[in-house]
Amino acid sequence: MRSVREVSIWPGVGVAIILLALIPAVGLAFLAVTEARHVAETSEQLQTLEATTDELDGKLNELELDDEQLAGVDATFNDLAQEIERQRADADSHGIGIALGLAAVSIMTVAGAALATRWVVRPLADLAATAEDLRIGNTVDEVEIRGPGEVRTVARILNEAVTNLRQAETQAIALADGRLDEISAHEPAAGSIGESLTTAVERLRLTLGEREEYRRRLAHEASHDALTGISNRSASLDHLNGALARAARVETDVAVFFVDLDDFKQVNDSFGHAAGDALLQEISKRLVDSCRDGDLVGRIGGDEFLVIAEPVNGEEEARMLAQRLLNLVSAPFRMGDLEVMPGASVGAALAGGRTKSSDVIHDADLAVYEAKEGGRGRAAFCDAEMRARLLSEADLDTAIRRGLTNGEFELHFQPTYHLSTGVLDGAEALLRWNRANEGTVSPARFIEFAERSDLISEIDTWVTQRAVAHLARWQQDPVLRHLKLAVNVSGRHLMRGDLSDNLLSAIKATGADPRMLTVEVTESALLDDFVTAGDHLKRLRHRGVTVAIDDFGTGYTSLAHLRRLPVDVLKVDRTFTSNLHRPDDLSLVKLVIETGHLLGLEVTVEGVEHFQQEDILRRLGADRLQGYRFGYPMSELDLRNHVMAVTRKIAART
Ligand code: C2E
Ligand code: CA
Ligand code: CA
User: Fold this and answer.
1) DSSP assignment of 139-157, as one string?
2) Closest atom of ligand 1 relative to the 606 alpha carbon
């Protein structure tokens, strides 16, 4: 804009042009005025001549001339009249000339003005309008190059400015939109605006580049697992959704595999977290290496991997792939001097036309669960039969939870017999479910199921509260006062850590004597996590609660373990009792009793149904016996009557 103002010679140029146009007009006007003056002079002379003639005529009339003299005078007069007439005609013709001259002057003036307007004023007005538009920031078109040379020069300069500004505007818009490549494709705008724009573009390009890199990094981090570098859970699920949509379009099938490492916690606990991380990286590498292009391996949990394969040709291929993944993962892994045998369970499922990822994931989940339940280190495929069975188990779950609040559960009590005193001095609380419309359901049918989920904790909590309440009541009862009460607790619940809290707070609330309470934990549960279980049991024992290892002999507790476990009682599993006639079982029971005593533990043998069994076990040195021979599991009232009857019998005998 500054440059336009600098060349503002326009008013001068305009005036000059108008003056130039006026020169011929002024000339013509001058001529017309001269002519007019001439006509006026002639007409004045004529008027004087006429007056003189009239005067002469008067004088002649006074002279009374003769005919000849008159004729001479007449002729003279005629000549004079003719001369006057000629002179007048001449003067008239001069008048027309003046009129024409004046007309010409007018026309030329108008034409000059028009020409001046067209040639100078309009281009100047255009320039002014454009300059004004520029000033207020309107979009402007280029001005037409016309008018005198100076005007055209200015118009050209203005047009350059307009072009420059327009380019700057285009680039600024592209800049605002972030279309940097487009800006680079253009010539940079000239001058300081162009320079600023180029700098802005460069800065923005740098910032955008950094931001893009940052965005890419964030996106990668958001979709990838930091440790293994493979897809994380959400990215894996996204991939699955895409795969399911693709499969539905081209009518192929997608297989989903859950690979769940077995005992991964032990690797962490025994060899440290670095070893655990290395194992996870190795497993992820093995899975990735084994996959075809387009398949996906993701890490969806601590020690859980997801493999999505497509297309997969039916159930057989899916089963085969699942087994292959299992073999791959289970191959030994060397870490320095250490050789780890990673175990895993693999669950497989086929989409089978379903497009909801959650359905397929659910199936794969069921399958891996089934594989784990089936003894780990296995691969399982979720088919219709598995789905139906697990569906009924889901019903079972709901029914149990409902039953717990509806009063469908109760505790029965099976007495234990103290061999040396011959007294029933204890009872084990056993859960009974009077399921609506189905009669009594044995815990053997639902405890194992409940132990697969948190449901067992709900059950255990219910049982421990009830059992402690019973015990508190017994302590006020002269018949039951001397009975110790044993409660079964699930290993899973024990590991969760709130079992001891639950028990201790129930004891506190009821005022029951903890020394009259025994908790029974199965040997297998203890072996799962020896250290944690030990810690929780210690807490209970510290408060006076007796701890018994249930189903002893079915696991593989080493003597070393047994010595370190905070336990008081070993309960020999009833399978040995029923097989006491076999020398192997007999010697095993003998060994357990001797070892137990060696470690200062009491030994109870369960499942005693016959006198012969009682007799053998007595000779082997067992401390207590439990079994149908001494009483079935029964209600509290029946237990009371039973204990009274037995006590009476003993009293009658002595
Ligand atoms: P367990 O702790 O070994 O309980 C003894 C099981 O043996 C009981 O089965 C009992 O009825 C049965 N039994 C007792 N004497 C004899 C006998 O002479 N011969 C035979 N053949 N069986 C006998 P039940 O009541 O069906 O309990 C099964 C298992 O369920 C229990 O085995 C225990 O592991 C679990 N359980 C029972 N009640 C509870 C509970 O309240 N909480 C938890 N967590 N588990 C429980
Ligand atoms: Ca038991
Ligand atoms: Ca048992």
Assistant:
1) --PPPP--SSHHHHHHHHH
2) 15
Mean pLDDT of the chain: 85
CA of 487 to the centre of ligand 2 (A): 7
Q: Is 612 helix (H, G, I), strand (E, B) or coil?
A: helix
Q: How far apart (Å, rounded) are the C-alpha atoms in residues 70 and 67? A: 5
- 350 Cβ below 6 A of ligand 1: no
Q: Which residues contact 389 (CB under 8 A, 6 or more apart)?
A: none
Res 492: pLDDT: 80
pLDDT in tens, 577-610: 999 999 999 999 999 999 999 999 999 999 999 9
Residue 252's CB is within 10 A of a number of other CB atoms, namely 14
- 2-47 confidence digits (pLDDT tens): 344 444 455 555 555 556 656 666 666 676 667 567 656 766 766 7
The winner for highest mean pLDDT among 267-276, 358-367, 628-637 is 628-637
627 lines ligand 1 (CB under 6 A): yes
Contact 158, 130 (CB under 8 A): yes
Q: Give residue 629 CA to ligand 1 midpoint distance, Å.
A: 15
Query: Does the N-terminal peptide bond of residue 342 adopt cis geometry, omega within 30 degrees of 0?
Result: no
Average pLDDT over residues 383-412: 91
> Using CA positions, which residue lies closest to atom 19 of ligand 1?
607
| Ligand located closest to 432 CA | 1
Residue of 447, 449, 518, 577 with the most ligand 1 atoms within 8 Å of its CB, for mutation: 447
Ligand 3 centroid distance, CA of 155 (Å): 108
The yes-or-no verdict on residue 615 having pLDDT over 60 is yes
Alpha-helical regions (H) of 178-254:
180-185, 191-223, 233-250
Q: How confident is the model at residue 488 (pLDDT cuts 50, 70, 90)?
A: very high
Q: In which residue are the tokens 């989940």 written? A: 365
496 C-beta closer than 6 A to ligand 1: no
Give the pLDDT score at 2: 39
- pLDDT at residue 7 in the model: 44
User: Alpha carbon of 62 to those of 67, 184, 551, 581: distances in Å?
Assistant: 15, 113, 187, 203
- For the chain, percent of residues with pLDDT exceeding 90: 46
From 57, 81, 83, select the one nearest 70 (Cα to Cα).
57
d(CA 270, CA 49): 153
Instruction: Please state the rounded mean pLDDT for residues 289-314.
Output: 93
| Ligand 1 atom 10: residue of nearest CA | 633
Report residues near ion ligand 3: CB below 5 Å: 550-551
Structural tokens at position 199: 């700098």
Q: Is residue 487 exposed (0-12), middle (13-18) or buried (19+ Cβ within 10 Å)? A: buried
Judge whether 458 and 490 are in contact, CB under 8 Å: no
The ligand 1 atom at the shortest distance from the C-alpha of residue 490 is: 44
HSE-CB at 319 with a 13 A cutoff on CA atoms is 7
- Phi, psi angle pair for 607, to nearest 5°: 75, 25
Write out the H or E segment, with its range, that includes residue 324: helix 314-330
For the CA of 411, the nearest atom of ligand 1: 41
The H or E element that residue 443 is part of is helix 443-450
Could you count the other beta carbons within 10 Å of the beta carbon of residue 335?
A: 14
